[in-house]
Each structure stands twice: as structure tokens, then as C-alpha cells.
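Field reference: "sequence" (input) and "structure" (output). Example, 3-dehydro-L-gulonate 2-dehydrogenase:
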Amino acid sequence: MLRVPFDQLHAALLRAMHQLGLTEARATLCARLFAETTRDGIYTHGLNRFPRFVETIRNGSIDVYAEPTKSAGIGAIERWDGHSGIGNLNAHASMQRAITLAQQHGTGAVALANTNHWMRGGTYGWQAAEQGLFALCWTNTLANLPPWGATTPALGNNPLVIAVPHPGGHVVLDMAMSQFSYGTLAAYSKRGEPLPVEGGFDTAGNLTRDPAAIESSQRALPVGYWKGSGLSLVLDMLAAMLSGGLATHQIPSDPLRESGLSQVFLAISPTAIADPDELTRIAEGILDSLHQATPADPSNPIRYPGEQTLQLREENMRLGVPVDPEIWQQLTLSTTQ
């Protein structure tokens, strides 16, 4: 991997956003979200995904001019329509609206229909945690995960994010319902490396660590086997029913035309019911207990979700953000012509 300064990465992405037709404020935010995702080590949903993002704009799946609008609401819960706009901008706006509602009511919820891939889901957990709020959010996807006991995809890997604010470092869980996302499978496959644990089945129905075999069979393994399969289903139902949008089985199966996604953003203002010092004390007690667990491998300390992100963020800001040389060259060439 090649390392480039964060500001240089953001500037190149910003130039690309301008070429795609985004207005200045939207271009700046969209470029920042892509750059921060890459900085935080989620390479599969940062710069590495940018070429696919561009293709979905060019084929009409994304309308760069569309912005979300409210379609219904009562009290602390609202429905919004994303109008096929840019996924990470729609999601950022929806989480911010949920935060505003939570600051008014203690809790806030936005169900978003007719949107596009939100890129790194954890972005919106960090967004809420950095403003001192708990958050839960999830999205459905195209069908890319077989239900437990099936050989063909009928569920989405429907990422789920849960965020807990903490002064010593926010706790942010960002997980797909498959053991490995397809972006992660592609990254391992490109490096020619096996997965650390079985991630799915090959075409013969055998569990395997071969990412290319799983990509070929389209039989990714649900987390927790039947439990992950069931969780994927109910997340899809909640997102589609609350937003009034599409369910997984209605979303185009072509990854380059995946659109019309349904998402939910929940925010909770903890200080509405508890003293901040009490919350910090509880969180620190839990995390201290976690860190005291004996690691199976002494060279791999026990970490909470989001802890490694903070370490990578500091390292990549100091040393430069790792980028794929081929994709970086494509980006810089396209934005300097």
C-alpha cells in the first residue's frame, strides 16, 4: 500500500466530487466521509469503493442532485425519502436529524426510504457518539446472503451499527450479518490470503476460508449461523416497514445498480435520564473488566469495538493514509486532466 497525507487524499476526492457535479458543501462532506473511512482503516468502503460509487452515478442509480425530504412524522419518529440521492450524504443527514430529535425528546428516530449504499455504516455511529449520544442504525441491502439451510441468496448482509459515547474512546460496533462483508472477501482475494476463520461455503457445500470460493458460490456464512440469518431478516423487515421503502427481495440484484435501500437511524440522549459522571463510571467499569480478560494470544490484546479504529486513525494521520496504488493513480489522473 502507498501512504498519502490525509489532506491530499481529501483534496483529490473533492476534485472528483466536483467533476461528478456535486455542489461545494455536498462535495466537501462527501469527500470527507470517503477520506475519513479510508483513514480509519475501512479501506473496502473508502477509496477502494470509490470507482464503484462513480459507476453507480454514471449508470443513473444515484442522483447527485437529490436531497432527502421528510414524508411523514409524529413526535420523535419521522419518515424521510432519499430520492435516490448519494447514500452517505443521505445517511449523514438522517442521523443528524435523529440526533436533533433526540436532543428535543430524549430519543429520535428517522426511517429513510429510497436511498443508496451508505458506505461505512460506522460513520453514523461515530457521528452520534462524538455529539454525546447513543446510536443504533442499520440498512438493508440487495440479496447476497443465503438464509440458514439455503444455497441461494434471499437475505441481505444488512449491516448494524451500535455506538456508545465514552470520553476515553467511543465504543462503536459496525457489523454485517455475514461473517465477512463482500468487500472484505474481495480484499482478501486480491491479496491472495485465506480468511482467518471460515467465512462461507464453496460450490460443493464445504465450509471454507477461501474468499474467492465464497465469492463464486455466493454462499457467505451468516454470523452465528441461524441466529445471524434471523437477525438479517428482522432488520430488513423493520427498515422496510418503518420507512415504507423496499425490502431486500425488491432491491436490484446487480451490485452496480443496487438502489432503493431502506435504513433506520435511532439516537438516544443519555443525559436526559442519567448524570454524565455516572455514565462514564459504568462504561469504564465495563471496559476495564473487558481488558482484564486473559488473551488467548498474548501478542493480541483484548479490544472493544472501535478501539483499533482510534489507533489506526492516529497512525494514519501521522504516517499517511494507506491507499491502493492503482486506485490512487486512477483518481489522481482523472482529477488532473
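The chain has four domains: 1-58+307-337, 66-178+224-273, 188-221, 274-304.
The chain has a mean pLDDT of 96.
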